[in-house]
Amino acid sequence: MLVAFSVAPSGVPTAGPAPHDASVHDAVAEAVRIVRESGLPNKTDAMFTTIEGEWDEVMDVVKRATEAVGKYGSRVSLVLKADIRPGYYGELTGKVDRLEAAITERDQK
């Protein structure tokens, strides 16, 4: 499965290097660190982090990343989108590769 998620703190920070700073980059960096250390295939862009793996292992990483962000605010916002397609692997790049091939094929017509 692929899971794209975005997690951010809100409210008054309870910890972190600047407890009254409105920036969320430290919290997001903590979440991304957890994802990368998981060893699962992943990609981070300006809006989401996408992770690929089996249901339980992906959700465990999302949960740990969300909990880590919690210390940076009194609330946490989590946005999650999943593509659940049993038996398919390598879709983190495979879906994009197929899209690019379709665009190239169309442009050559």
Any overview of this molecule?
This protein is of the alpha+beta class. The chain contains three helices and four strands, in the order βαββαβα. It is elongated, with a radius of gyration of 17 Å. The termini are far apart.
Total helices: the number is 3
Sheet-strand content, in percent, reads 15-25%
User: What is the molecular shape?
Assistant: elongated
What's the order of the H and E elements?
A: EHEEHEH
End-to-end CA span: 33 Å
Overall average residue pLDDT: 91
CA radius of gyration is: 17 Å
Helix percentage range: 40-55%
Structural class: alpha+beta
The biggest sheet, with number of strands, parallel, antiparallel or mixed sense and barrel status, is: 4 strands, antiparallel
Biggest sheet: strand arrangement: 2-3-1-4
Strand count: 4
Spans where pLDDT lies below 50 across 5 or more residues = none
Descriptive terms for the model:
alpha+beta, four-stranded antiparallel sheet, 41% helix, 23% strand
List the helices and strands and how they pair.
Layout (H helix, E strand, L loop, with lengths): L1 E9 L14 H13 L4 E3 L4 E4 L2 H15 L5 E9 L7 H17 L2
Antiparallel strand pairs: 1-3, 1-4, 2-3
Helix pairs in contact: 1-2
Quick rundown:
The chain has 109 residues and is of the alpha+beta class.
